[in-house]
Amino acid sequence: MKKTLVLSAALMTIVGLSSFAEERTLIDFSTLTADIAVYPEDYDGEKTNNQNKRTIMDYAKAAGASFDSKQKELMKSSLALPEWEVVLNSSARNVSSLAQSQVKAAPSKQFGEVMGVRVVFPTGAYNANAKIVPPFQIPAYEPYAVADDSGNRQASESSEGESSGPKWLFESDDPSNKDQPAYGLVKNVGTLKKVAVTTMGMNFPHALYVLLSDNDNVVRRYFMGYLGFDGWKTLEWNNPEYITEVRTREIRVYPIYPRGEPFVKFEGFQICRDAAHIGDDYIGYFKNVKIIYDKANLETERDIADEDLWGIIGRKENARQALEMSRFGNKQVNRYIERQKMATEENFTPTIDANSDSAAQSNGGQAADAK
Q1: Which residues are paired to 105 by β-bridges?
Q2: Contact 189/35 with Cβ under 8 angstroms?
Q3: At 250, is the pLDDT very low, low, confident or very high (cuts 50, 70, 90)?
Q4: pLDDT > 90? residue 208
Q5: Which of 122, 147, 200, 370 is the most exposed place for a label (fewest CB within 10 A)?
Q6: What number is the average pLDDT over the span 238-250?
Q7: CA–CA separation, 77 and 199 (whole Å)
Q8: φ/ψ (deg, to 5) at 103
Q9: Where are the alpha helices (DSSP H) in the chain?
Q10: Spatial CA neighbour of 14 closest among 292, 323, 298
Q11: What is the per-residue pLDDT for 137?
């Protein structure tokens, strides 16, 4: 009996030591360039790339039967940088701020294309904040599928080594590559040790937070620091309650199956402006967000394929995936309807054609000369 307890304690110590310090890029904004044209043309009649092929989502299934096939072909959205939104709190929300606060793709000499953000804060002496969020909540269970240049997705394996697993994960042959492409989701995450964000400061005194959620749909804020500096800098949050000594940790043992795999998902940034600080325009740029974390589960070879036999996790994830898609689709369909109702004309159609008016004046002058 004593020998069994000693072996169990030794095994827990080895497991604890081996599960430390896993580093991954949570999201890299340089991978979210607009590289395909889903909407046929802009207001000037010219085709432009407006969606990101890797993160395209089709929400036509939630649109109902009142739309024709051509309209449903346009019901697509992605994590392309211009699609991201600036959500202002009630103290900062007015017509001018809503119209001018936006996200753009910013060309960078050092990193290629990064996220550029403009927020118009009020100039009055009261607190205000803005969240920079994706156009839809990043799904954790949506399966991967290759998309063509029109944004139509087909379930198959990619030539880049990606599997048909979750769409928002990138699985390469080299798991030690910490800078592999990232699209807002990291799985098998236990305790967070550090969070880092690479951002360009512009000497603004505002505070920066990173918003992350987990598999229980709990959203947490991580204070990264203040933006009162110039140039690129990596801001870090260090977990003050992280315990590095295994013997002082509380050992928790969970059932291996059918507990789902814990994950961390990117929810956005939050910029907070204090009442005592300057208001009006804030300009910022973001390259990526990285995390260092404990693994929730050790990846080992098991004698029996539990999921193939019981399929419990698959049924749970299919239900969650359907719920995620319904939430995503309803919001996007309403936006599509609103986009269709928007006025596209910039100027009035002239009542009198300038050419015909000048021609009439010319003919009138010639008639007067003849008299």
Answers
A1: 115
A2: no
A3: confident
A4: yes
A5: 370
A6: 82
A7: 26
A8: -120, 135
A9: 2-18, 69-73, 95-100, 306-310, 312-341, 354-370
A10: 298
A11: 87
- Cα–Cα distance measured from residue 116 to residue 149, given in angstroms and rounded to the nearest whole number: 25
Structure tokens given for 171: 């699985």
What's the token pair of residue 107? Answer: 């060309």
User: What element of type H or E holds 210?
Assistant: strand 207-214
| Distance, CA of 92 to CA of 206 (rounded, Å) | 14
Q: How does DSSP classify residue 193?
A: E
Q: Are 286 and 147 in contact (CB under 8 A)?
A: no
- Tokens 């969020």 belong to which residue? 133
- Residue 98 makes CB contacts below 8 A (sequence gap 6+) with 88
Tokens of 176: 């030690």
Query: Mean of the per-residue pLDDT values for the chain?
Result: 79
State how far the alpha carbon of 172 is from the alpha carbons of 13, 92, 161, 179, in Å.
30, 43, 5, 11
Residue of 92, 29, 65, 88 whose CA lies nearest to 285? 29
**In the chain, which ranges are E strands?**
22-28, 57-58, 76-77, 85-88, 102-108, 112-121, 128-133, 146-147, 153-154, 185-187, 189-202, 207-214, 219-226, 230-238, 263-273, 280-295
Mean pLDDT of all residues in 346-353: 78
Q: Which pTM value belongs to this model?
A: 0.79
Q: What is the predicted pLDDT for the residue at 271?
A: 97
